[in-house]
Write a structure and sequence with these properties.
It is a single chain. Helices cover about 35% and strands about 25% of the residues. By secondary structure, it is of the alpha+beta class. The chain has a domain of about 230 residues: FAD/NAD(P)-binding domain. Strands 4, 6, 7, 8, 15, 16, 17, 18, 19, 20 and 21 form an eleven-stranded mixed β-sheet that branches. Helix 1 packs parallel to helix 9, helix 1 runs parallel beside helix 12 and helix 5 crosses helix 12. The two termini are about 30 Å apart. InterPro entries: FAD-dep_OxRdtase, FAD/NAD-bd_sf. Keywords: Oxidoreductase. This is FAD-binding oxidoreductase. Pfam families: DAO (PF01266).
Length: about 425
């Protein structure tokens, strides 16, 4: 078996893949232009939730589509020019919002999330970061009874897949999280099959440190070129410092940069869109505390307690990877959050910004690239790359070792969108 592997990208997915392949006896080099965990994996709510099995393109999207297309919702904004240039992606994305494709995606993501939760717990314990993990769930907040009732289809999916939830009234919420404005949320759904961490970036960094401590090689260089070796087996990478790296196998785990990289290096077109998100940290005011992440369904934000403060994350902005910043959604989220919770001072002058890579069926590509022996793919995780990185690694590691994976790999096969 070819034994050397270069993993491109040191976000949660890439670092997890490097660790898993190292555990299986491969000689692994992890290549990342920045420090591990400083790109997309840094800027999320830190939630590892079974409720994430419902993607954005679910059957209920059709009823909401006219309102979303007005481009005024704090939950979803889009660049019209981007959408016009990616009509193929948009059409395929909407086509997967039908019941049949949705159920296929929900089943696949449920398996990947379950596997990832167990793997995260194993890794956090091994690297000495178990203290960062909370096991007290997260909350979906509803600003009216009508809004709660409109979420019935989602709750039915949770029940069908065995996701543990509990419905709370206003008094229950006040007892559980007393910092919220009394009476603002008459109904809350407590999703109990959920863990969260207090610093996704620090967790990714800890996994990377463990990889290096176990003998792994970390190169802080951008990859300038990827080509087959002259003898026809294995790969040669040209690095930003002018150096060369040869490897029997390569894993592309570059998140939102994966599609552009593959097109530039191999002429391959992967239909990917970029769901941009923003976050900013705040001090709590008047001694207020928050015990777990919350999702305000009406305010279209997530507020999560982090080591850096209270992290406020915005809704989705569908636009180009390198488009200029648009701070409106985060400003709307801050206004809504201040109605609900005593936020104090902003802790950063400028908000963080990142993009989530989304394929038309909201499932990642995990497996060997068609017609490219030794080129393996692990990207396209939309909003759940941090939570599903370790499960992705377990699946990829089994496939690379020629073993039967713990979950069905077919829904994630790269050939479904490899052109």
């Amino acid at each position: 078996m070819s034994n050397t592997v270069a993993v491109l990208g040191a976000g949660m997915v890439g670092v997890s893949c490097a660790l898993e392949l190292q555990r299986r006896g491969f000689q692994v080099t992890l290549v990342e232009r920045r420090a591990p965990g400083q790109e997309t994996s840094y800027g999320n709510a830190g939630v590892i939730a079974r409720s994430s099995l419902i993607p954005f393109n679910h059957p209920g999207l059709w009823a909401n589509l006219p309102g979303l297309l007005r481009n005024q919702s704090p939950q979803f904004r889009y660049s019209p020019s981007f959408l016009l240039r990616h009509l193929g992606w948009a059409t395929a994305f909407l086509a997967r919002a039908r019941p049949g494709p949705f159920e296929e995606t929900a089943r696949a993501l449920d398996g990947l999330i379950r596997l990832s939760m167990a793997e995260h717990l194993r890794l956090l314990t091994k690297v000495g970061e178990r203290h960062r993990l909370r096991d007290n769930g997260w909350l979906f907040l509803y600003r009216s009874q009508a809004a709660y009732e409109a979420g019935a289809a989602g709750r039915a999916v949770f029940e069908r897949y065995g996701v543990r939830t509990q419905t709370l009234d206003a008094a229950d919420l006040q007892a559980l999280e007393p910092g919220f404005t009394p009476g603002l949320f008459p109904r809350t759904l407590w999703v109990q099959d959920t863990s969260s961490v207090d610093s996704p970036g620090a967790v990714t960094e800890a996994y990377a440190r463990w990889f290096v401590a176990q003998g792994g090689r970390l190169l802080s260089q951008p990859v300038q070129a990827l080509a087959r070796r002259a003898e026809g087996t294995g790969w040669q990478l040209s690095l930003g410092d002018g150096g060369q790296l040869q490897s029997d196998r390569v894993v592309v785990a570059l998140g939102p940069w994966s599609a552009g990289f593959l097109q530039a290096q191999l002429g391959v077109r992967v239909p990917m869109a970029y769901e941009r998100g923003y976050h900013r940290h705040f001090q709590p005011q008047d001694g207020a505390t928050l015990g777990r992440p919350v999702y305000d369904t009406g305010g279209a934000y997530v507020l999560s307690p982090m080591a850096q403060g209270l992290r406020l994350t915005s809704g989705v902005e569908l636009t180009d990877l390198d488009a200029p910043r648009q701070p409106l959604q985060l400003a709307l989220a801050e206004d809504a959050a201040r109605q609900a919770f005593p936020l104090g001072a902003r802790l950063e002058a400028e908000p963080w910004m990142g993009s989530r890579p989304t394929l038309p069926d909201s499932r990642p590509m995990i497996g060997e690239a068609p017609g490219q022996p030794g080129l393996w793919l692990a990207f396209g995780h939309q909003h759940i790359g941090f939570s599903t990185g370790p499960g992705t690694a377990a699946l990829l590691g089994a496939l690379m070792a020629g073993e039967t994976p713990a979950i069905d790999a077919a829904p994630f096969r790269p050939g479904r969108f490899w052109r």
